[in-house]
Specification:
Layout lengths: L4 H7 L2 H14 L4 H24 L15 H6 L3 H17 L9 H4 L8 H9 L13 H17 L1
Helix pairs in contact: 2-3, 3-7, 3-8
């Protein structure tokens, strides 16, 4: 049975979602430049969102509780600044052993299990996002590049 991207986001593994995106990119008319940049960005985002989805602890960039991982929420996290904030939120959550900076109730935040940030951290570092100092800006050119990558992702979703 064929699953839509919406169905994949709601209940499939990161590998299944990435594979579907890869197939769509290969059959799209997207320029190779954008196609080469899209999948690593999507995988970096998924590496954080899938564990949160599986724990029932999804939230949006403003920290509001979200019930499911869908295309709209995924695209909200496609903003490079939002993704940087997510990385720092999860880093602080990993250190404290509970989910921080969200509207989830305490009983839910206490069930948080550490999220592996290796993929997300490597991706952000490759675009000179400072992972030690949250207040440090990154080059605006990288932000602008990611707007283009997000456009390619929108077409996939």
């Amino acid at each position: 049975m064929f699953k839509t991207m919406q169905q994949l986001l709601s209940d499939s593994s990161q590998e299944e979602i990435s594979a579907a995106m890869r197939l769509q990119l290969e059959s799209s008319d997207e320029a190779p430049f954008w196609a080469d940049k899209t999948l690593p960005y999507a995988e970096a985002i998924l590496s954080a969102l899938i564990p949160l989805r599986d724990q029932g602890l999804l939230f949006d960039p403003e920290g509001k509780v979200q019930e499911s991982l869908n295309a709209e929420l995924f695209l909200r996290w496609c903003d490079l600044l939002s993704l940087k904030t997510l990385a720092f939120t999860l880093q602080k959550s990993n250190e404290s052993g509970r989910l921080m900076r969200t509207d989830h109730i305490k009983e839910r935040t206490d069930t948080y299990e550490e999220v592996n940030l290796e993929t997300l951290g490597s991706y952000l570092s490759s675009y000179t996002v400072d992972l030690k100092n949250e207040a440090e800006d990154f080059p605006i050119a990288h932000y602008n590049l990611h707007i283009g990558i997000t456009d390619a992702i929108k077409k996939l979703l």
